[in-house]
Amino acid sequence: MNDMKYLISVVVITHNQSNLLSKAIDSVINQSINKKYEIIVISDDNSLNSTEKILVEYKNKYPNFFYKNVNNKSALLSRIDGINIAKGDYICFLDGDDYYHKDMLKIMSDTMQKYNADLVNCYPYMVKKDKIKKYFFRKKMILNNYQAQRENFFDIFFRCFMVTKMFDRKLLKEVSDNLYINRDLPNFAYEDVLLMYLYLKKCKKVINIKNLLYYYNKNNTTSATNKIKIYQDYINVNAFIMNDILKSNDLKLLKLFNKFYFRRKLLLKYDLHRYNLLDRKIVKKVAYKEFKEIFKKKEFNKNNSYAEFLKNVYTKN
Description:
Elements: E1 8-14, H1 18-29, E2 37-44, H2 49-61, E3 65-70, H3 75-85, E4 90-95, E5 99-100, H4 104-115, E6 119-128, E7 131-134, E8 141-143, H5 145-154, E9 165-168, H6 169-177, E10 179-181, H7 191-200, E11 206-217, H8 230-248, H9 251-259, H10 261-273, H11 280-297, H12 307-312, E12 313-315
Helix pairs in contact: 5-7, 5-9, 7-8, 8-10, 8-11, 10-11
């Protein structure tokens, strides 16, 4: 890694996606922006020799291209590894099975600079089979800290996806440095929800633009996420957020989070619908009980299923 000054660091996360990786990387290389940026690929638990071959070829060809092999088996830990390596003023993320619009970096960085923003959010195209669909619910917004958290909890016009956003790299580094994650913890879903909540706590100005600049691939089946336990991951992450709010004694943020109880319960219901095992009724009963306990009682039972997660993921301060 050299000491060259970059405006933007693009962190690409890949896990056995060599068939799609070149398209992802090329979409970054072929950006319309005329300012310096670096590409950092975090190659997580890749067992395909073809992945290493691709990465070596790009490294030999482009001086602003770097990669690191890791064994995280976790998207969140890989993002943090990328944050720790990045040198740019701003940082963006890209999943190895997705790709950027050619103007992604230009529009996002121009907006960051124009508004002196801590975060800029755009919208994705949804790619499924041979069809590309626009994300429907789009709105231009200039948000302060609590307004941004409100939109984040509502999760309609401002989705939690890390990959559709540009961050202030130093601010994001502060957040990741203050987050403890046991590296033996299995990969979990909704890691974006957790990290976005923590980052927005530090933001003063967030810009939401209506541009569609990210192509999200809904065809890929190589994701490390264990879909059987995805409902539990959702409960765990909500327990983390509630616990963190209570520790900070931020009554205004607590009120905002409570306001969207039914919206978040609806998302839990959707995840439970995907849970297709024989004990579905028992699982649903326990899940709703825990979710109500977190939101309504604001208590955390050490015997419940989220307790282990809270031991392994927490803020240091």
